[in-house]
Structures are given as structure tokens and as C-alpha cells.
Prior knowledge:
With 393 residues, the protein is an alpha/beta fold.
Amino acid sequence: MGLSRPHKVGNGVPARWVSLFCIASFFLGVLVVNRFWGVPDPEKIDEEAAPLEKDQSRREAANGVGDILSQVSQTHDVIMALDKTISTLEVQLATARSSKYGNDEGSPMVIKPGGEPLKERQKVFFVMGIMTAFSSRKRRESIRETWMPQGDELKKLEEEKGIIMRFVIGHSATTGGVLDRAIEAEEEKHKDFFRLNHIEGYRELSSKTQIYFTAAVSKWDADFYIKVDDDVHINLGMVGSTLARHRSKPRTYIGCMKSGPVLANKGVKYHEPEYWKFGEEGNKYFRHATGQIYAISKDLATYISVHHHILHKYANEDVSLGSWFIGLDVEHIDERSLCCGTPPECEWKAQAGNPCAASFDWSCSGICKSVERMEEVHERCGEGDEAIWHTSF
């Protein structure tokens, strides 16, 4: 009599194997329960067992639970450490990419012939880029004479406080022309410019802002990167104290948040050619920081630097920046000390011992007639020239 074929189930697996697997799983489960929970063998259960044996069983069970909890805790710590390491590696990779792109965009980062950076990026607290134009020399002088340290003081600020301050400007349409030579002469005297591979123009502000962050990330390893206009008054100590409160947060976007109307009519200031993307006529923009001054954390600046080639630019640079963070896990911080009015508002706050971080006139999108009024605002609303040196970050 021949052997019968074994009965199969599922995808051709013999039923006998399935039964053996189930039996093995059952006994394995019993062993695991015995090991960790101290469940006695059914054959050895004795209703008359001594209390000492029961206590021993309970202690073994408790020890088993303790071991498991300890292992879970250790595993959690390992996972957290790995997560932190992965995040660090991601930032380093993004930084390496940004250095490449930053150099392509005219970053002043020096590269050796073999492609290796000449030196590591300088680690600093924050980089403040003051956006300026060829026609704004008097504005720059008003800032140098008030809230921006000069010469050795500027260098000391970098070394002792980790604060980098530069006027940010690109090039004229005719490279090497009279406008560029004037900036080069000014740079030779003050050493406070950050030049971009960018052609200056009012309608190119979104592009300039994008290139600024890309180039700044490739040169300095900062906790924050700030953009400020050259007709705004700044109290550096207050700016530093404000940023320090958010230093531990990875993706922060700090400024005076607003949601202005989308202007569809041609010929008006701040006209948005792509108004139709924001819904029906009369709608408002998504919430974003006003363009006079805002700060973004390292991760966000690195994000811009890595993805700058695919980030869309709208007509207004503050709208463009806000749009780049839509859909990202970003914390928007509405910091009203960055948009105080000029005297008497900022003066009252200064007298009360709570100076503003930044002051300007909303009606002028900056200090009205800033060249003439910057000194007055500084005298009445300033925190004091020594404040920055006595402020800990």
C-alpha cells in the first residue's frame, strides 16, 4: 500500500507543519510566561505551598518586570540618541549642499583647488544682514553713527558675542561700473559689507533675500539668521535677548506676523501679479512676518539654501519667505517688540525699562525720513550703547 500525500493548506504548506508550529508556539509562550512572570508549572501547583515560596515567586516576577522596564528605558534612550544623531547628520548634509549652492550664488566662502573648504564655518549666535541699495549710502552712515558698532567694536562683537552684522548688497547690471567701485571703496573703509552674486533691483528683492540666506548659511554656522531693512532702528541687546528665548527650538520663524490684502490692481504699490493663486479677489495673504525685520533659525535657513532652486518667488519678498514655510513644521512666533513705532511709542517703553528690539513707522514701511531721524530715534528709544556688552545670551 503506497504512502498517501500529506494534506496541504494555504500556499502549499503541509497541515502537519502548521500543527507542529502551533504546538511549538504554545510551549514557547508558556516558557516566556514562566520566565518573565514566574507562573509555576501546572503539575507543581500546591494549594498548601508555604508563604515563603509564594513570596519568592512574587519577587522573581517583580524582578522580571523590573528587568523589562529597564530594558525598555535603555532602548528608548538609544532610540533618542540615534534620532539626535540622524538629525545632526541631516543638518550636516544640508549644510554641505548649501555650501556648494552658496558658492555658486557668489558666497564669499573660499574653496581650495581640490574642492575642500579652506576652513570650517565660524560658529556664531546670529547673523544680521542689513539689506541696502547703491542709492542708500546716507542711510548706511546714519546706522553706523547710531546702533551699529564700527571698526574694532564690530570685530569685538563677533568674537565676544557671536554677532555678525553686515550690509547686504549685490552688483549693478554693469559689473565693475561706477556703482560697484563706490561700494568697494566704502567696503575698504568700513569692512562691513556682504556682497552677493545678485543684480540689484527693486523687483528682485525676493531673489536677493533667497540668495542672502543661501550665502550666509554657507559662510557662518549661526543659530539664527536675520534680515532687516536699512531704515529700521535696532537695539542689539534686545534682539539678542529675544532670540535667546527661542534658541532650543529647531524651526522658528520670528517676526511681527501679519496678513495683508492681496492687491490685484496693476500700478499700485505691492501689486501681486499672481493674485489669482490666493483665491477670490479681495482675499488676504496667509500669515507671514512683515518684511522690515524677521529672524529664522538655522534649520529654516539651511532649508532655503538647499532648496533655493525650486522655491517660488512672489512679488513681495516677505510673502515669498512666508510661502516657503507653508506645509513645513515651523513655529511662527509673533514678536511685537520687533515692530514698535518711533517716538513717542518706543520712548515710553524705553523709559519703562523695556526697550523695543526694533522700531519703525508702519506708514513708511520703515522710519520716515530715516537719514534725518535715525539719530533722534536712537537717542530717545535706544537701550544704551553699552547694553549689548552687558547682556548675556
